[in-house]
Give the backbone structure.
Amino acid sequence: MENTESQANIYAMARIAMERMTQDLESACLPKEVKAHEPGGGTSQTFQFVGEHNEIEGRDADSLRFTSLAHLTFADEDKACGPAEISFYVKENEEESSFVLYRTDTPVFRESPEKGTGGFELCNGLTSVKFTYYDSDGQPHDNWDSTSDEFKGNIPRRVSITLQFVNTLHPEEPFTFMTATTLPVSKG
């Protein structure tokens, strides 16, 4: 019974995480420049779509940072609308030998948290987090940087997400969940 509940929790967590990431990616945008209105004058910011392949102890622990119109607000003073920088990153949970996937959501007119900090826990108990980026020719890439010469200001045409969760009964066979989404504004 306990194992069934644990599996049900994993499936629910995976579904919620995949839905959130898909919604964020489907709202991805790459404006060339936006004026951030702050006291004392505006400043220009250039936005990026940056996906990095990382590993922790030989396991995929990818990160992704991009501009999206899927900003979520949780506080009355944070009712800003417009683009936000969304970031997904992985931290190791050393107590459980697993990973935790975090999501940050920062309106463009605010300072982003330091890389790999802040945000909310999206899911835990992971053994692997993998993003794959596909260009307009359908070619897969482990990394994507819209500021690089290779991608020239473009975002991927499609992004696939693979989450693997710890399977306590069969550790060598993690629970694997996959999805992919097309980014409608991509030129890449």
Remarks:
- Residues 34-45 have pLDDT under 50 and may be disordered.
- The chain is about 15% helix and 45% strand.
